[in-house]
Amino acid sequence: MMAQAKPSETFVEVRDLKRVFDVSRPWLNRVIERQPKAFLKAVDGLSFDIRRGETFALVGESGSGKSTVARMAVGLLPVTSGSVLIDGVSMTAVKDSQTRQQLRKRIQMIFQDPYASLNPRWRVERIIAEPIHAFGLLKGEQVAARVGELLTLVGLHPDDGRKYPHEFSGGQRQRIAIARALASSAEFIVCDEPTSALDVSVQAQILNLMRDLQKEFGLTYLFISHNLAVVRHMADRIGVMYLGRLVEISEGKKLFSAPRHPYTRMLLDAVPDLGMTGRQRQMVAGEIPNPINPPSGCTFHPRCPLANERCKREAPAMIDGVACHAAEEGRMP
Amino acid sequence: MTEPVISVRDLRVEFVTRKGILRAINGVSFDIMPGEVLGVVGESGAGKSVTGSAIIGLIEPPGRIAGGEIRLHGQRIDNLDPESLRRIRGRKIAMIFQDPLTSLNPLYRVGEQLVETILTHTDLSPSAARARAIDLLNEVGIPAPERRIDGYPHEFSGGMRQRVVIALALCAEPDFIVADEPTTALDVSVQAQIIALIRKLCRERGTAVMLVTHDMGVIAETADRVAVMYAGRVAEIGPVRDVVKHPLHPYAKGLMGAIPTLEAEAERLVQIPGSMPRLSNIPQGCAFNPRCDRVFDRCHVERPDPDIPRFGLEGEAPLMPGHRVACHLYTRKTVETAS
């Protein structure tokens, strides 16, 4: 069992994280068509902390860079610049393989599509045991016992380990993915849209399971989702992303009761919700711009009702949890 | 009382497979009035999309309509020959699919696709058809339609593509549109725009819409009435406000409680144990009985049909007209031990 979580302790520190993708056309095309190289800033200077035992959620529309952050946080994608410190250790800076191995063991990821994230040719027991073998945690019969224990933990039967992934439904597969994430006794789990491929009743089961496990083991979650209602249900703190930047960081419920950034307000206005039958909504204008050629200054200014000259010129800094000139100048209605 | 645009009675759709006959739809009935949006919700495998495909005549072998009637303005359309059906489809009934990228041909300009559809269904001249296509694009909210009409689908964003698909569906001014998950592939801010567009079209043109989606939020906001489907049957149908706020069927109750909302304070979401049965293995009696917490003897033997609830449960809100539920709890001959 993990030590009881001390709520104030910072566990994950993300500092000025950047990721640039080269999306240029092939060399020959560039030469013939006289085009410069093109770069896409998927994540552009992101900083946030996650405290031990809490759920930090990132929300945003497609193309906002949520999943890129998730992949960098677990080390699946190298960072362009900036750092991710987990319990004070930077994954990118560590050269010593032993230390890196130690760190990796403590981080796991749950992916969006449980049909793609489980090897269809492996039995479930082998899938779940993979982290145990990879880190050399247990040997022989202990492995089977541990796999059985993990399966029970996520609400499956130990005998299910003999089956193949195709014999399970989407929700059950996501349970298997969770069991695999827990196999190395990970403390920090990055969940990239863990329930968006699932039906609502199954989604409820998985979300409840994730909460139960968090309480039991003091897990820290980085929870990525585009579904604001799910995020509201799960997260202690929420970061709202727009075109690779954080526009607002807020304590969970506060984001919904008192949103401060115009983009957050717009998103909240747009979400269809059960409690809003027959409501007349404020129409939202425009769409997320092309990230290869983002607008100048504050990237939200073309869609923002409060934009002025300064917003077009100057990118706002994150001040007291919100990156917006209008909020800073007290122009927010 | 106006006549319904579409009227479905006891529809059955089967798929013949090597392992036997699978009943995807087993006795579904509903009406949709002019200008009305009927939301159809349910989880994957409930038969939502198959119902939509059956109405528009797109059930392909090995699937077949095994029974029941589909009437458009009182005329049966489920037994028409392919040629007569083709004349109705597109002109009287149109469909909006989930993925706008697959319902547009990537090799033709948007305008060509619109004009082709308009020419097929109306007597307009090519130049009038083009003018009409521009009008349609304008109506669905595409900026600078005179210029955009000559663009290819890949030049449009997801939301704009879905608008083009809606324009395509409107070409022949159909009386009835089946919209199968029209906003699922879109971001929330764009989704809101598309929902508003569909509602506006319904109000202004009096088009009836069957909106198939798994997103209760979309239904709550768009639909006038909602049908909750489970394992190929309608579990509950009624005015959207009643069904969302006061669901009666134990499955509908569970479903509403399972959805995290932006308002409710819930530490845990309501959890329905188990999952939807496979079509090859639908339980005897009420299909929901293995997962139901209020199950009693009758549920195991007799399959309930949607009916006016005669008995309320304790603390239930007053029953609304038009609200029907397929559950023995509400049609008990004698009120059983109310505990």
Range of helix content of chain A:
25-40%
Beta-strand residue fraction of chain B: 15-25%
Content of β-strand of chain A: 15-25%
Radius of gyration of chain A (CA) equals 21 Å
Distance from first to last alpha carbon of chain B: 41 Å
Global shape of chain A? globular
Rounded mean pLDDT of chain B is: 85
Helix content class of chain B: 25-40%
- Strand count, sense and closure of the main sheet of chain B? 7 strands, mixed
Derived structural class of chain A: alpha/beta
Oligomer: heterodimer
Q: Give, in spatial order, the strands making up the sheet with the most strands of chain B.
A: 6-7-8-3-9-10-11
Offer a quick outline of the entry.
The complex is a heterodimer of chains A (333) and B (339). In chain A, 45% of the residues are buried. Helices cover 33% and strands 20% of the residues of chain A.
Topology:
The complex is a heterodimer of chains A (333) and B (339).
Chain A: E1 10-22, H1 27-33, E2 39-51, E3 55-59, H2 66-74, E4 81-86, E5 89-90, H3 97-105, E6 107-110, H4 124-134, H5 141-153, H6 170-182, E7 188-192, H7 200-217, E8 220-225, H8 228-234, E9 237-242, E10 245-251, H9 252-257, H10 262-270, H11 309-313, H12 325-328
Parallel strand pairs in A: 3-8, 3-9, 6-7, 7-8
Antiparallel strand pairs in A: 1-2, 1-4, 4-5, 9-10
Chain B: E1 6-17, E2 20-32, E3 37-41, H1 48-56, E4 63-72, E5 75-76, H2 82-88, E6 93-96, H3 100-103, H4 110-121, H5 126-139, H6 145-148, H7 158-170, E7 176-180, H8 188-205, E8 208-212, H9 216-222, E9 225-230, E10 233-239, H10 240-245, H11 250-258, H12 297-301, E11 324-325
Parallel strand pairs in B: 3-8, 3-9, 6-7, 7-8
Antiparallel strand pairs in B: 1-2, 1-4, 4-5, 9-10, 10-11
Helix pairs in contact in B: 4-5, 5-7, 7-8
